[in-house]
Design a protein that fits this description.
eight-stranded parallel beta sheet
Length: 182
């Protein structure tokens, strides 16, 4: 808790950073690239007050891994991220088996995703599941393009406004259920 990483380069290995049982962690102006799996995961325990700002994420392309830059929360809401800020990051060249740029999993709530520049992804540039009724996520002022899927996909329980979305393969914006109805 109460840790800040600034101006650090993370590269190589499997997942570059794994956030476990933590809160009030700030990752700012770091360079995260060329991992064997993901850039950041926060999917084993509930996390809160993560601040992921002004970072450069790229080249998560291992065909045997999921390839997300940010994997925040866990499937079926088993771990949730809340009260966090994902802002002003440059995310690109995500591939592998999935390759989402920023993925906020089911049950994660009261998060602010703002001002990110996300492009060249296998799956959506930004993908947000529902919150399970716990609050809303705010997704605004992001620039997203060149996804091989829907450019942005949001299940619900979110305010999505003032984003620039340019579709390459799927829809620019899609809203559909993922894991549960909310």
């Amino acid at each position: 808790e109460y840790v800040c990483f600034q101006n650090v380069e993370f590269t190589g290995g499997s997942t570059l950073i794994r956030f476990y049982d933590c809160h009030h962690v700030w990752l700012d102006r770091c360079h995260l690239h060329h991992a064997g799996a993901e850039g950041i995961t926060a999917n084993t325990r509930d996390t809160q007050h993560l601040f992921i700002t002004n970072n450069h994420f790229h080249d998560f392309k291992n065909p045997n891994a999921t390839g997300e830059a940010m994997y925040l929360g866990a499937n079926q809401g088993k771990a949730k991220m809340s009260y966090s800020v994902i802002a002003n990051n440059h995310v690109h060249d995500c591939g592998g088996q999935q390759g989402d740029g920023i993925e906020i999993k089911q049950g994660s709530y009261n998060n602010w995703v703002v001002g990110n520049h996300v492009h060249d992804t296998q799956y959506p540039c930004i993908l947000a599941y529902g919150t399970g009724g716990k609050g809303i996520n705010l997704i605004e002022r992001n620039v997203c393009y060149r996804s091989n899927d829907n450019t942005m996909q949001v299940q619900g329980e979110a305010i999505v406004r003032n984003n620039l979305l340019m579709a390459a393969s799927g829809a620019g914006f899609a809203s559909t259920d993922h894991q549960g109805k909310s």
